[in-house]
């Protein structure tokens, strides 16, 4: 299938969809300067990033942990939503039942104007104190103002559970979707990676949009290989047209 036909097919699927779920990964934010995880220049090539993404490092090296995540927060705050984020926020305005489910912790979909984003892996822009339960701050140099202990980002670290309510909402949305659009994710980390399967198992049609081929492409009705920041605006501009119009 050529890219043009795949784009047209994907556009038609979205135009005629009743319930769309968009499941995004780090590829969506690459154009905003946020590294992915598994690309050649990805975060997991950085040993410090690997070390400070495990829950036990919170206790083992609290100062190093805070330093690493504070630096990532600065990079995220300096980033801006790219045309891919803006297109998904626009899609949600065109189709209000659309659920945006992301593995990203950069908050860029919300900053692009999207509503009720399901942040499966939490958000680097929110911090919390696991000692006294403070979730609102204020934080003074990443310390809890209430109890003085170190605060931490509200991000799911390896070895930690996802927020049950967020995961359940995402699972229900996937199961109820008739079109499931995967954007910029290798979809290899569970339980998030199970969501496309749950959509397919309930009769949903899968669209994959990724810079490189994915194993899931074989289960997709439409496969788009390219950049999210280029393809999503093209996809979404067509959604505003009535079903059947090319
Ligand atoms: N447009 C579309 N896809 C892109 C782009 C782009 N501009 N740039 C890169 N990609 C693709 C890459 O080819 C890759 O397949 O995005 C995908 C990103 O995959 P990963 O780096 O594995 O990121 P992700 O799938 O989000 O990882 C999931 O794994 O380590 C955990 O918690 C971490 O949330 C993360 C989860």
Written overview of the protein:
- The protein is built from nine helices and ten strands.
- By secondary structure, it is α/β, with parallel strands linked by helices.
- The longest helix has 17 residues.
- It folds into two domains: 159 residues, TPP-binding domain (Rossmann fold), CATH 3.40.50; 75 residues, SIR2/SIRT2 'Small Domain'.
- Helices cover 36% and strands 17% of the residues.
- The protein is elongated and about 55 Å long.
- The site of adenosine-5-diphosphoribose (APR) has 22 residues, from α9.
- Adenosine-5-diphosphoribose (APR) binds next to α9.
Which percent range fits the helix content? 25-40%
N-to-C SSE string, H for helix and E for strand: HEHHHHEHEEEEEHEHEEH
Regions with pLDDT < 50 over 5+ consecutive residues? none
Q: Briefly, what CATH class of the largest domain?
A: Alpha Beta
The proportion of strand residues reads 15-25%
What's the domain count? 2
Number of strands: 10
Number of helices: 9
Rg to the nearest angstrom?
19 Å
CATH topology of the largest domain: Rossmann fold
Which ligands are bound?
Answer: adenosine-5-diphosphoribose
CATH architectural grouping of the largest domain: 3-Layer(aba) Sandwich
Give the termini separation: 17 Å
Task: Let me know the average pLDDT.
Answer: 94
Structural class label = alpha/beta
The main β sheet shows up as:
6 strands, parallel
Molecular shape? elongated
């Amino acid at each position: 299938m050529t890219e043009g036909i795949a784009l047209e097919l994907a556009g038609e699927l979205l135009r005629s969809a009743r319930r769309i779920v968009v499941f995004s990964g780090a590829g969506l934010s690459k154009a905003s300067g946020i590294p992915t995880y598994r690309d050649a220049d990805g975060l997991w090539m950085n040993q410090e990033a690997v070390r400070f993404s495990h829950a036990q490092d919170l206790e083992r090296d609290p100062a190093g942990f805070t330093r690493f995540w504070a630096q990532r927060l600065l990079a995220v705050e300096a980033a801006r939503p790219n045309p891919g984020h803006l297109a998904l926020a626009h899609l949600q305005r065109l189709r209000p039942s659309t659920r945006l489910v992301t593995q990203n912790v950069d908050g860029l979909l919300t900053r692009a104007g999207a509503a009720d984003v399901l942040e499966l892996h939490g958000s680097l822009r929110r911090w919390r104190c696991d000692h006294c339960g403070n979730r609102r701050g204020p934080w003074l140099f990443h310390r809890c103002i209430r109890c003085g202990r170190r605060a931490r980002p509200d991000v799911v670290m390896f070895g930690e559970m996802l927020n049950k309510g967020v995961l359940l909402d995402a699972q229900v949305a996937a199961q109820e979707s008739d079109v499931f659009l995967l954007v910029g994710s290798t979809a290899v980390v569970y339980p998030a990676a199970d969501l496309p399967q749950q959509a397919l198992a309930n009769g949903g049609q899968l669209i994959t949009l990724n810079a490189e081929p994915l194993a899931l492409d074989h289960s997709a009705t439409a496969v788009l290989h390219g950049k999210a920041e280029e393809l999503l605006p093209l996809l979404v501009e067509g959604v505003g047209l009535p079903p059947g119009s090319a």
